[in-house]
Amino acid sequence: MRPHGGQVNRTCGEETQAGVTASARGNARGVSWAWQLGAACRGLPSSIFYPADDERGNRRRRRELRAKRICAECPVITDCLRHAINWPETQGIWGATTARERASRISNGNSRR
Ligand code: SF4
Which InterPro entries does this one have (predicted)? Predict the structure, then answer.
């Protein structure tokens, strides 16, 4: 598992199968992570989904586009986006959305994909 945004579950990164399996059973908040087992981003570097501290402009847009293309082929995109809005995940690309796009959906009352 890889820490980010104050929590430790993410499908991409170098987590072990055991780590994902353990998190798939749920956590202290009663959230199931089983959907992550089918994620297209498993094993991919989290740097695709999260910005570097100094990332701006076109570099940031290119990385986000790359991540969104991976998400577009992901079989659990709906579960991922639902999780990211409900948790909420405040950083990174989840379910083919940026944190800013998710915040906008939440503020508009349009949290369903
Ligand atoms: S939708 Fe994107 S971020 Fe979510 S699990 Fe799939 S590939 Fe990973």
Answer: 4FE4S_WBL (IPR034768), Whib (IPR003482)
pLDDT in the model for residue 109:
84
What is the predicted pLDDT for the residue at 21? Answer: 42
40 lines ligand 1 (CB under 6 A): yes
Q: Which of 40, 43, 49 is nearest to 73 (CA)?
A: 40
pLDDT below 70 — which residues of the chain? Answer: 1-30, 110-113
Give the whole-angstrom CA distance, residue 21 versus residue 36: 9
Provide the 3-class DSSP secondary structure of residue 58.
helix
| Rounded-to-10 torsion of CA 105, 98, 10, 5 | -90
Domain boundary assignment for the chain: 17-107
41 is in an annotated binding site: yes
